[in-house]
Amino acid sequence: MGTVIYSIGVSLDGFIAGPDGEIDWTEPDEELFRFHIDQTRELAAHLCGRRLYETMLVWETAPDSQWDPAELEFARIWRALPKVVFSSTLERVEGNARLATDDLATEITKLKEQSDGPVAVGGAGLAATLVELDLIDDYRLFVYPVVLGGGTPYFPARAGRINLELMETRTFGGRVVHLRYRRP
């Protein structure tokens, strides 16, 4: 059975996007980008909210000639990766993606039962809902050395505590620290 991963860049003060939605501070260096490529290669599927799907669409549609070798490798992995998009406004999606037809919990249950590998979730709203439903198995934070002072939090406000076990840490050359936690 697959696991659900929530993996994203986060500021030192816990935000995944700044007050105006900016994420320009999360540009990975070569070492970190290679790490993301390797992690993406292991995924069985990726769940996306509408905004993340639209942001990542460039990897589906841009001509291969615009990418350097590492970017081209990521684009090929991303294109092959099955994606489920949760949106109430999109009527169609491109590439190896489909619009979700069931509610979030049902889609997650199906994907976990059908896959041998992990399923990643992306998009602040979608991830927040999964956190609230206690459907995240693995939290992967890439902590950037920046304090934003506000914005979109990595963890939504919630009524209950989530106990986690530290599984891995790694510091990248660009001073980004990867923290991986699992539910015990």
Structure in words:
This protein has an 8-stranded mixed β-sheet. A two-stranded antiparallel ribbon has the order 2-8. Helix 1 packs parallel to helix 3. The protein is globular. The chain has 5 helices and 10 strands, in the order ββαβααββαβαββββ. It has 184 residues and is an alpha/beta fold. A hairpin with a 5-residue loop joins strand 9 (165-171) and strand 10 (177-182). It has a single domain (28-170), classed as Dihydrofolate Reductase, subunit A, CATH 3.40.430. It has helices at 30-41, 50-61, 69-80, 104-114, 124-132, and strands at 4-11, 15-17, 45-49, 83-86, 97-99, 119-122, 138-144, 152-153, 165-171, 177-182. It is 30% helix and 27% strand.
Low-confidence stretches: none
CATH topology annotation? Dihydrofolate Reductase, subunit A
CATH superfamily: Dihydrofolate Reductase, subunit A
Count of helical stretches: 5
Strand order of the largest sheet: 5-4-3-6-1-7-10-9
Largest sheet: 8 strands, mixed
Q: How helix-rich are the residues, as a percent range?
A: 25-40%
CA(first)-CA(last) distance: 16 Å
Mean pLDDT: 93
β content, as a range?
A: 25-35%
Q: What oligomeric state do these chains adopt?
A: single chain
Count of structural domains:
1
Computed over alpha carbons, the radius of gyration is 16 Å
Structural class: alpha/beta
Overall outline: globular
CATH architectural label: 3-Layer(aba) Sandwich
How many strand segments?
Answer: 10
Secondary-structure element series: EEHEHHEEHEHEEEE
CATH class descriptor: Alpha Beta
